[in-house]
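User: Here's a chain of 409 residues. Predict its fold as C-alpha cells.
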Amino acid sequence: MPHYSDIGGSAESNGQRLARIRARHRWTQQRLATEAGYSLAAVKAFEQGRRSLDRPAVILAFARALDCHPTEITGSPYTPVHNDREGQDAVASIAAVRRALLRHGRPTRPAEHEAAAVDLPELRLRVAAANQYRQAASLAKSGNVLPALLRDLQVAAELCQGDQRREAFGLLASAYECAMQYLYKLGHSSDATLATERVVWSAQETGDPLRMVAARWFDAGEFLSIGEHDEAGAIIDAALTELGALRDRVPEAVSLRGAFHLKAALNSARATDSRGAEQHWKKAKAAAEELGEDRNDYQLQFGPTNVAIWGVSLPVEMGKGRLAVERASGVQLPTQYSPERRSHHFIDVGRAYFYNGQRDLALGAFLKAERFAPQATRMHAGVRETVGTMIRTQKRGELVELGIRLGVV
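Assistant: Prediction complete.
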C-alpha cells in the first residue's frame, strides 16, 4: 500500500466541482454566497477543500442557486478504482438493469420457453434472494441477478391473470425496489429515479392499498433528494392521511405510518426545519413503541431500532455533531440487523464524530462501515467528501489507505 507522500495528486472534491460550476455561470464567490445564503468565508472554505461539503441540505442550497442537479456537485456516479475487482463487478450490470427498466410496460413478446417457464413460487424465491443481496449490500450479486429476474417478472405480469397477476406485480415492484437501491448505491440517480417510477406503477397493479402507500415512500424520497421539499411533503402528508383513515390498526399500517414520519423528519431536516424534524421523529418513536418490535413490511424496515438509528442520522443531516454522538452511544444494533443498515449507521456515526471534531473516531466508524458493506461505503458521497477533507487537512497512514480505496486520493 503506497504512503500518502507517494501520491501525486488527489481526486476532485465537491468544493472544486462547486467552483467549476460557479465559474461556468460567471459568478463571483460573493454572488454565490449571496444567492445560496452562506457567508463568503464559507464558500471559500468549501471551494478550497478546507471545509467538507458533504451535507445534502448545503449541497441542495448551492444546487438551487446554480440551477444544477446535486450530483453535479457530488460528482456521482463514481468509477471504482482499477484494482477494486468487486467494485468493477458491481458496476458491470448497470446497462443491463437499465435496459430491463426501460422495457417496463412494453409488450414482452416472450419466447415459447419463457412463457412455459413462468413459475410464481420460483419467482418468489428469486425475489427473496434479491432482497437478501440488497440488505447485505452485495452490489455485485444484485447486479448479476436483477436483469434476468426483471425480465422474467415482466413476462409473468403480462401472462398471468387475476390473483396471480396481482402477485406477479407485487413481486415485480419488490424487484424494482432492489434495482432502485442497486442503482442509487452506485450513484446512478437518474436510473434510480426510473426504477422508483416502476415501483409505483407496479404497486398500483397489485390492488393492495398498503402496498400502494408503501411505494410512495420511495416516490417522496425522489423529490426530497433534489430539494423539492413541498412536493415531498405533499406525498408524505397524503400517505399519512390515508393510513390515519384506516379503521384497523394492523401492524403493517402502524409500521408504514412510522416510516413515513421518519421520511417527513428527513424532509424537514434537509429543509433546515429542525423543530419539524424533531416532531416527526418523536411521532415515529411513538409508532415504534406501539409496535414493540422491528418489522420489515414491504421491505421498509421500521421499529425501535430503526427509530434509534434515525435519531443519529437526523442530527447529522443538520450538522449537529454533539447531539448525534450523544444519541449514537445509546444505539444497540440487533445481531440480525442487515449489513446495509449497519453500514449506513456507522457512516452517520463517522460523520457525527467528524462534525464533533473527533477525527480518529470518525475514521474508525468509516472503517467499520466499510467492513459491513465495502462497495456501498466506498460509493457513499458523504464518506468520500468527508474522508477527502480529512486527508487534505491531516494526512495519516490508515486514513490515506481508506482514501485510496475510495478513490479520493
